[in-house]
Amino acid sequence: MTIRWQSAVALGTAVAAAIALPQATNGAPPRTDVQVSVQPTQLSVVGLPCFPGNLTLTMTNTGAEDRYADLTLDPRGPLQLSRELFSSWLPAVDPDQPVSAPVEVRVPRDTQPGNYSIELEVDRSKVTVPVTVNPLPAKGPGSNVALGEQATASSTHGNFAVCGGVDGDHDSAHWDTLTGWNDGTRAVFPDNYAVTLAAPTTINRVELYTLDTAQWPAATNGLRDWDVQVRSGTGDWQTVAQVRGNTLGHVVSTFDPVQTDAVRILCLAGNGNTYSRIVELEVYGS
Ligand SMILES: [Ca+2]
Questions:
Q1: Distance 170 CA to ligand 1 centre (A)
Q2: Which of 49, 147, 160, 244 would suit a FRET pair with 109, their CA atoms being 20 to 30 Å apart?
Q3: What is the distance in A from the centroid of ligand 1 to the CA of 283?
Q4: pTM here?
Q5: Mean pLDDT across 114-133
Q6: What is the distance in A from the centroid of ligand 1 to the CA of 167?
């Protein structure tokens, strides 16, 4: 069964945001004039490479003196952070001027599901961000084996995320929320978008969703010509299906069963001759 957007959200992203103030330790008043907030205040992640959790850290100097501050992040258990230190100069200005930085949270595929945390600390004042690691989605026969796996691309437009094409959301209506992949070389082809599978898998079908809305129809904005390719044991890419002259938002390519550890879309042309746009790439076995 395809995992759709709602469950993908539950797997990969998080709950409502709020402000977390530094807590006093040992009953003493807070020792810091740096206010820390984290959005969201807790995370839910899964051990798939393209489903990282994302936090935004914010420090605000609420005191009267300019200062420098170090926010340290201590991941507990198997959590892997894109940074474990956020340092910033914090001028004392009125109104207060918050300074923010993103943090990506990943867990290895074999992580034991359960509850973990990230401990944040500034001036010995601490904030705890609870992190729930969810079980991996079942990828049995008939499921989309590309879901959440590592995506790579020849280029990616700065407003987009390369993982958007394997995030479980194939609805073009969500395009503005960056749930798809858009290449970064306007009017230059070919481009390519690839996903590495968790293990060698026998597949026989690829479903590609390209941009297709009332405002941005596939016939003028979607992908037009592409090859579906699989990676061979020697690392070469072999074409297993070709699509030419497409004007639809959803195209199914079937081919003889082949075992492979990666699938690639070689994008040869886009309608409107602008960009390669993939809302979702799905890969299935027989
Ligand atoms: Ca998507």
A1: 5
A2: 160
A3: 13
A4: 0.80
A5: 95
A6: 5
Q: In sequence order, what DSSP letters do the residues of 19-66 get, joined into one string?
A: --PPBPSTTPPP--SEEEEEESSSEEEES-TT--EEEEEEEEE-SSS-
Please give the distance, rounded to the nearest whole angstrom, from the Cα atom of residue 181 to the centre of ligand 1. 7
- Concatenating the DSSP letter of every residue in 211-224 gives ---SSS-HHHHSEE
Dist CA 263 CA 239 (whole Å):
10
pLDDT tens per residue across span 98-123: 999 999 999 999 999 999 999 999 99
pLDDT in tens, 49-101: 999 899 999 999 999 999 999 999 999 999 999 999 999 999 998 899 999 99
Q: What is the rounded average pLDDT for all residues in the chain? A: 89
Q: How far is the CA of 147 from the centre of ligand 1 (A)?
A: 10
Spell out the domain ranges in the chain.
5-134, 150-284
Q: Report the separation in Å between the CA atom of 209 and the middle of ligand 1, taken as the mean of its atom positions.
A: 8
**Ligand 1 centre distance from Cα of residue 280 (Å):** 4
Span from the CA of 250 to the centroid of ligand 1 (angstroms): 13
Tens digits of per-residue pLDDT, 153-185?
999 999 899 999 999 999 999 998 879 999 999
**Which residue, chain included where needed, has tokens 């001027």?**
97
What's the 165 CA to ligand 1 centre distance in angstroms? 4
Residue 4 pLDDT > 60: no
Question: How many angstroms does the Cα of residue 148 sit away from the middle of ligand 1?
Answer: 10
Let me know if the fold of 5-134 is the same as that of 150-284: no
Q: Domain spanning 150-284: which CATH class is it, in words? A: mainly beta
Give the H/E segment covering residue 267: strand 250-270
Phi, psi of 220, deg, nearest 5 = -120, -10
